Please model this.
Amino acid sequence: MNSIEVKALTKKFGSFVSVDNISFSVKKGEIFGFLGANGAGKSTTIKMLCGMLEPTSGDALVGGYSIKKESDNVKKNIGYMSQRFSLYNDLSIIENIKFFAGVYGLEGELLKERINWVLKIANLEGKENILTASLPGGIKQRLALGTAVIHQPKIVFLDEPTSGVDPISRRSFWDLINDLSAQDITVFVTTHYLEEAEFCHNIILINAGKLIAEGNPKELKTKYLKKTILEIEATPVNNVIEILKKSQYTEDVSIFGNNIHAVMNCNYSEKEQVYSMLQHVQDISVERIDEIVPTLEDVFIHLLEKDGK
Amino acid sequence: MKTILHIIKKEFQQFRRDPKMFGIVLIAPIIQLLILGYAATLDVNSVHTVVYDMDKSYESRRFIERFKRSGYFIIDMYAENYEEVTEQLNNTSAIVAVVIPKEFEKKIQRKETVPLQAIYNGSDGNTAGIASGYVAKIISEFSKEIVLDFRERYGQKSSSVGMLTPEIRVWYNPELKTRNFMLPGIVGLLLSVITLILTSLAIVKEKEIGTLEQLIVTPIKPFQLIIGKLVPFVILGFIAVVMVITAMNLIFGIEVRGSSFFLFFASFLYILSTLGLGLFVSTISKTQQQAMMIAIFAILMPMVYLSGFAFPIENMPEVIQYVSYLIPLRYFITIIRGVILKGIGIEYLWMDTAALLGIGIIILTLSSLRFRKRLE
Amino acid sequence: MNFVRTKAIAKKEFKHLFRDIRMLLILLFFPVFLLGIFGYAVNFDVKNIKTTVYDSDRTELSRNFINALNSSGYFDITKFIDSDTEIRKILDKKDAQLVIVIPKNMSREFHSNKEAKIQYLIDGVDGNTANLIQNYVTAATSSYNNKLTLIKVSKTGSKFYTPIDYQPIFWFNPELKSTKFLIPGLIVMILIVTSAVSVSLSLVREKERGTIEQVDVSPVKSGELIIGKTTPYIVLALFNAIVILVVGYILFDVEVKGSYLLLFITTSIFLFASTSLGILVSVISDSQQVAFNISTMASLLPSVILSGFIFPIDSMPWAVQIFTNLTPAKFFIEILRAIVLKGVGLQAFYLQVIYLIIFATVFLGLANLINSRKGKTS
Model:
């Protein structure tokens, strides 16, 4: 059974089309990655799915409820956490938790149990009365997530939950997401970090409001990028990129950490061709050239460039 | 209902954490009341005076003595010529120069009329006008004495001629203290500041830090959010009203002559419209700075100048009088002045009360609708 | 001091100013708007006093007297009543500010050479207006009385004696219009908003965004920075001052009687002082909100209430009078009134000018002190 079903969803602001007729579905209990560049329409889509914004046309069923006609029911069944830290800095931890629990109507035993649960996952047991403002970023994010799911929703929307958080906290945050998914909670997440996208069960990519790719990470890598990719380590990087871009073999060249990734075209047959081409240029020294399995980033850069053209 | 209580509780927890806010709400009104109460007075009680006595006689000194004894005049200097008089009026804070002509005494003795010049620095028209009234009064009393004196001396029958004399009674405020007029107005002004600015800031702040978005995805209904956010400010507003009225009584000795219950009821109606305006400001501003600018310049300033707080509405041009009908503070000030100073109640103030209620409901409804629309 | 660098900053600030059209419009139109609306609203001139008459005499004399009052232009007789029971209600409801009660035997008493009293009941809630009404009715009664007496006296041939003939002369503002007195205050208030408040906000904005540190590491000296940043606002404020004076002349007949040069110089000095206040505020505050609060509390509020703009300083208790010396607005209002209304020269206000210069120096010195101390501790 699908926990989110999006049908031809469109949102216009004046003449500007922010979300352009997109459709997809999200299975129950999966971690669903929603990717796209800044301004691609990610936040607008999430706001519509959470019942904050009314779609111009199309509809979506979230937890079985129409976002158009039953937004009140939608809100009862979802949790939401945005990129901005959205707890009250001037309240203590316990005051924040109790406030949101109260807003969702939790009472009695259940209330106690859920408060303890939130404190546990945020590692804040015994520190209930600390002012929220004084918490470090990573802990704040965990507290925000705990608070966002305090009412045990079936679906949780996370809008760039890890932006501005250090790598170690990010990793443990994703452990938390996996735990939620293991409890059959659907996690709908957007992120900037493509290595995080690898943790998702399914992914869609949007650009300029349009859906341009979907599938699980493995499928995406093979389905959308069938060409060979070379990872080249050579210096000076800028000269190498320029030469590669001009050469007859490449379709796409981009920097990847210290390396260069080149998507090859049909003129290409073996990596020695490239090696000898670079060797012949003065001042360039080539350390290594390897054929690699594309990363998600390769795929997305390729797709976005293609879409841009 | 429970949801609303949760929001109210949260607001109060936040107040407790913000000592500055507490300061604004609890201490600022008292300080403003003190400063305004002492400073905001149009009473003219120390008229700086120059005397140019050309006669220097017994009569002229007796006449000058009247000025000294009246309590309104402070004689800064005795001029010796007209140049000095001009110099003083031009360059100092002197408001009036009294010029006693030569032969002042002789003419009076000869039963002739003496022209007496009083030259005013008219640049402050209000003060000059009132000071002129004081001078006229001194002159008329002095003249009356002279006439009586003559009659006594020459044995004339009193009132050989019929006279019309004014008998003036000032109601509600016999000492004509402007403070009594200003202070009730200040209650209204302070109430607007607290409810209007703080409400709009509280909402825009949640917008700025992103918690408003978090609240919107919860099942809270817009009306619950609005009520939950507004109720704490209604309570704060009431605390401020009680404090300021108590302070007014203790410090300035102004008592509430009419019904306190009606006063609080009217305050409540007035708060409805200021909260509505605060809500409205929050829907059109993105940042706290914008909210403050709009609240102060577009709403509070016109309130100060056009509500009749300091400047009587009756004196304004007709067009601006019509504009003042749109300002809720106008009605509220009429009501508090009526209740506090005149001791009247709803039997005479029902029109203003109804206007306040009407405006309050309209503003609050429209703002709530706009706020709701913004949320969705 | 390097002129090129100062100019670069001033240029940048001008560009900021012109890019933010909304802010620019607020700064340019706000003054005219304020002057237009408030200039008409802000006045104490009492005319058309709403009057109710209870004439229980009903004689030719009483009717003539009422007609005389009516034609004086100050009284607007809206209602005649037949019994004194209504009086309370009329004053309570604010239906009238003045009730004139003419006693039953007024005419008879007067003609039998006795003193006939006319009662005036005044709504004293607004003490100032009541005071003026009191003066009007006294003057109106006595002038009517004199007229009657003269007629009577000339008939009987006996001599009527008034010992003193009061001749008031009003300089500078013969019609005693309060608007003329209040407009200099409005000008000062508007200038404070465009100078002190905007300067402090603009400096704090840089601080909030962290760009002021950027400038700190560049070779620009703080003096150059401050001059560069404040120049555009001073220019804008000067422009505002001109616009206000023109509008004041067109709408309210307030002409500048004194020297334009003097006006320009003193305005510049005042702007210098009020921008110094703005700079001081910006040094103290860390956020725009705090800056706004402080500058409202420190400059706007005092310049309305304690500057003598509306409320005469002489009437305040001495403790409050001391406080009034803390606001530069007080001194500039005195200067403006002297130049614009009286048309007098420097000898009338050189003390005030010196005060303003002292102000500016003290504010700037304090700002510098606090700034350098902050630099050391952080």
Observations:
- Chains C and A do not touch (no CB pair under 8 Å).
